[in-house]
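Write out this protein's structure.
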Amino acid sequence: MSVVAAAQSSQPDEIHRYARYAGVAMLLSIIFGALGEAYLPGRIIVSGDAAATAANITAHPTLFRMTFATYLVEGFCDIILCVLWYIILKPVHRNLALISAFVGVVSMITFAVAQSHFWASSIILKDAGGMTAFTEQQRAALAYLSLRTATMIATLFFCFYGTASAIRGFLIMRSGYLPKVLGILLMIAGAGFILRSLTYILAPAYGSSLMLMPMAVAGIPLTFWLLVKGVDQAALEGRPRPIAR
């Protein structure tokens, strides 16, 4: 067997292996994302009450640090996923897979900026770095504003993340070696994320966190499919329904 033939025959095995890695990264992202975005912040942030929120941050520094740490793990996993999805989906269309990876990295940069504001709230409440020039109430208000800013930037992050997810969903749908239905669900989920950002900017009264729910409907089964099944290697070798370049 020639070197070229050997490389071609090993590609399905390689993509199958990376699909399993993607399943692990998605599982970790889901677990730490649920902790860092749904559960732990609710134990710190008191909606509409800057003083109570500041008291929680000051009284529970370990909990605050754990919340930030979950963001770091989730973000790291999502950056790895940008690379893994590129490898998995480039046989379908290399350029679209590259665009999804690039937009995914941009979304993670936006996410990092948002979480920097989350961390800044704890610095504002410390008696250091010139913050003693502000009263306790003023610092509580500034810390709460920093948290609100983090939430605002995170909402803008949805647009980039949703775009990357929608492109991946399209490529999954066309791949032939991953379930078409999962690709369709991911496209819908990506559209929901984009719509959430657009309504936040253009029509706040119509925005709802329910727009984010399709991502769970798509992401959870896709995660377990990758972990259990990986990709259909026989279909991958045939590469049915390629997109015209």
